[in-house]
Amino acid sequence: MTTRExxxxxxxxxxxxxxxxxxxxxxxxxxxxxxxxxxxxxIFKEGGALSFEDLQGFKKKYFQLYVHEDHRDxxxxxxxxxxxxxxxxxxxxxxxxxINYLGKVxxxxxxxxxxxxxxxxxxxxxxxxxxxxxxxxxxxxxxRSLIGNLSFHDFYTYDHSVNVSMYAIIIFKALMPNARxxxxxxxxxSGMLHDxxxxxxxTDLINKAGKLDDDEFKVIQTHPGLGxxxxxxQNADCPGIxxxxxxxxxxxxHENYNGTGYPxxxxxxEIHILARIVAIADFFDAITTKRSYHEVLSTPDALAVMDRxxxxxxxxxxxxxxxxxxxxxxxxxxxxxxxxxxxxxxPQNELPFVKDKAKKQNHDLFQKENTYGKVxxxx
Length: 379
Ligand SMILES: [Fe+2]
Ligand SMILES: [Fe+2]
Hints:
By secondary structure, this protein is mainly α. The chain contains 14 helices and six strands.
């Protein structure tokens, strides 16, 4: 069980601490020698610089270094700017930061106030800004591999929100190659918050990976409306964040291009462009990111499955731009489709394929050698 004090510090890999210039965060160790007890002691103060040898000394002396939660943003910023950390290391830390803030929104035990929402959205925005710096020039396949190498959380919605955010950034960039950073950030933030309405839905239902009965599905379908109401009634105000647009993405991300979606059955350009982008990001993540409970599709098969919903579920032009960012992805081998009722926001035990008679014969449903993703619980 995590104690209150433990939860205020997070561990950092010693090799990722910056050397040769002032560090912007304090470093702590747990000096308690008793099991199940923690006692944190600060061993290095922000503003000082460490040499490579200092760090080697720390490595020999201390089992683990920690940073206080209050310095998480400074640590993340410093790591993202680092020339030695890999993109995977950077993204892992940025994802942790985002999940930390998403946790503030989705924590059922916490009183939900405008201040909580504002703090969480500010934090998510900052995480998305870091993400933009790391992933904006990635193509789908590269991003997919990166995502597959990150740790998973046991709460599906956290991983899903972070992944959708990253895909939304690269889809927006593919559509508008000269997009400004604030535009890419808004795309990513809309993706990160698209399922915010789920915080009003019981957690066991959100995490239910089995087939939902009609009543359960009806409850799930209320999440866009609940999310919209939540943003409206909290009346949050964060400078530079366009809540009207985020509200539209939250409300419209389950609308279908042909007007068969929910909650309002709007169609085509009536659906906000970021909601149409998020719908594609949402779908792709659901069928390609490995979970402990269902197989995933290779990128060509995923694009082939999604291609069949072009003009129905998905905006055809945005989808074509999205798929064109992968060179020579081929046509996929799959002759299965997903029903119009497929809900990418929900975890699935098994993808609910339906046979598509009009298409070519199936060769192999899954390219099993592509086991993208590892399953590891984040702390
Ligand atoms: Fe979703
Ligand atoms: Fe959703």
